[in-house]
From TrEMBL:
Leader peptide range in chain numbering: 1-17
Gene Ontology CC entries for this record: extracellular matrix; extracellular space
PANTHER family, alphabetized: FISH-LIPS, ISOFORM E, SLIT RELATED LEUCINE-RICH REPEAT NEURONAL PROTEIN
Annotated organism of origin: Capitella teleta
Protein name, UniProt field: LRRNT domain-containing protein
Keywords recorded for this protein, A-Z: Leucine-rich repeat, Repeat, Signal
Xref: Pfam families: LRR_8
Highest taxon, organism lineage: Eukaryota
Keyword Signal: yes
SMART domains on file: LRR_TYP
InterPro entries associated with the record: Dev_Immune_Receptor (IPR050328), Leu-rich_rpt (IPR001611), Leu-rich_rpt_typical-subtyp (IPR003591), LRR_dom_sf (IPR032675)
Length: 157
């Protein structure tokens, strides 16, 4: 169930999904209903996702923050969520974020189009549930995890 909102206030009603695309947001809203499972924040002006920015959303399974201006995702930005799908493509991230707080749940990460230069085994080895990692259109020149068996080459795109 998708609900499209005209951004008129800072309070939202209970729903499964919140769509705040193109809402001219500069940060992740703090007043989304805590039973929301899908949050769409693409095409905004968010530059940082701070620690615990989403911790009040324990049912969050899908987050789309694509096509913002994100340069930093703090280490515990996703703490207390149950993210299965994280869409952070086409931002300004030079480092792969610490996803240890969602390592047991995240299955798919879209990281395409970020200026990432390397991705190392230690950055993904704690992602036990990871099935798909999309890293095309990056500046990656070094991958050291494909041969270790943490992620099969066919899982990369």
């Amino acid at each position: 169930m998708f609900v499209f909102w005209v951004f008129m206030s800072c309070s939202f009603h209970t729903t499964d999904a919140i769509d705040l695309k193109n809402a001219n947001l500069t940060e992740v809203p703090r007043d989304i209903s805590n039973d929301t499972t899908h949050v769409y924040l693409s095409y905004n002006n968010i530059s940082i996702i701070r620690d615990d920015a989403l911790s009040y959303l324990p049912s969050l399974h899908r987050l789309d923050v694509s096509r913002n201006r994100i340069k930093t995702i703090e280490d515990h930005a996703f703490r207390s969520t149950k993210l299965v799908e994280l869409i952070i493509h086409y931002n300004k991230l030079k480092l792969f974020p610490n996803l240890s707080d969602i390592g047991e749940t995240v299955k798919t990460v879209y990281f395409n189009g970020n200026p990432l230069k390397f991705l190392r085994n230690k950055q993904i080895e704690h992602l036990a549930a990871l099935e798909h990692l999309y890293i095309s259109n990056t500046k990656i020149t070094e991958l050291d995890f494909v041969s270790t068996g943490y992620l099969a080459p066919e899982s990369l795109e």
